[in-house]
Specification:
This protein has about 190 residues and is mainly α. It folds into two domains: about 1-100, Rna Polymerase Sigma Factor, Chain: A, CATH 1.10.1740; about 110-185, Winged helix-like DNA-binding domain superfamily/Winged helix DNA-binding domain (Arc Repressor Mutant, subunit A, Orthogonal Bundle). It has eight helices and four strands; from the N terminus they run H-H-H-H-E-E-E-E-H-H-H-H. A hairpin with a 2-residue loop joins strand 3 (about 120) and strand 4 (about 125). Helix 2 (about 20-45) packs across helix 3 (about 50-65), helix 2 packs across helix 4 and helix 7 packs across helix 8.
Length: about 190
């Protein structure tokens, strides 16, 4: 590979002078496509992953890691960089999945009936609208809605119902969709 000679020179330069800014910039420029390719393959087109941000984080990790300065063989360095990129992408995907699961909630503030908020203030509800919505729900959905209105977390609801956290998240998502549909139909 043509780049191996240049990469070898860069690695030797960084081993001699770890603060050589030009060498770091050259390393970054040369290896950016390699790292982005790794992130794209691992992410498999997931829309919840910012490839650019993840690749940037990988280079920050690389810069902070002084072990890279002892690796002067280009192929060994690429293997090392591949491992960092693979692990960083997996970690980012795992965090994004956890963040998405924890953000599944019933945002009652954004639900409106006839232009008026469903919740008038923190502790006062539009009971007529709530009754109308509850009439269109199954008993298990009403129970879930009551838990949410009580301010219980997804973990507490999962424990109370004896189901998994992710199952509660799915049920809340479905409930939110159904409530929005019921709200739209009550406006018409």
């Amino acid at each position: 590979m043509k780049d191996s000679g240049d990469l070898g020179k860069l690695l030797k330069q960084l081993a001699r002078d770890p603060d050589d800014q030009k060498a770091w910039i050259s390393l970054y420029t040369q290896l950016w496509p390699f790292v982005v390719g790794i992130v794209l393959r691992r992410a498999r087109g997931r829309p919840d992953l910012s490839v650019q941000d993840t690749a940037q984080d990988i280079f920050i990790r690389l810069f902070r890691s002084r072990i890279t300065l002892r690796i002067t063989d280009p192929e060994e360095f690429r293997k090392y960089l591949w491992r960092i990129a693979d692990n960083a992408t997996r970690t980012t995907l795992r965090k994004e999945r956890a963040r998405a699961a924890s953000s599944i909630n019933l945002d009652l503030q954004e639900l409106t009936i006839s232009g008026e908020p469903w919740i008038q203030d923190e502790h006062e509800y539009d009971w007529e609208a709530l009754k109308e919505i509850k009439d269109g729900l199954e008993p298990s959905e009403i129970t879930l809605l009551d838990f949410l209105l009580d301010g219980r977390s997804l973990s507490e609801i999962a424990s109370e119902l004896g189901i998994s956290y992710s199952n509660v998240g799915v049920r809340v998502y479905r409930l939110r969709t159904k409530v929005r549909r019921l709200l739209k139909s009550s406006k018409n």
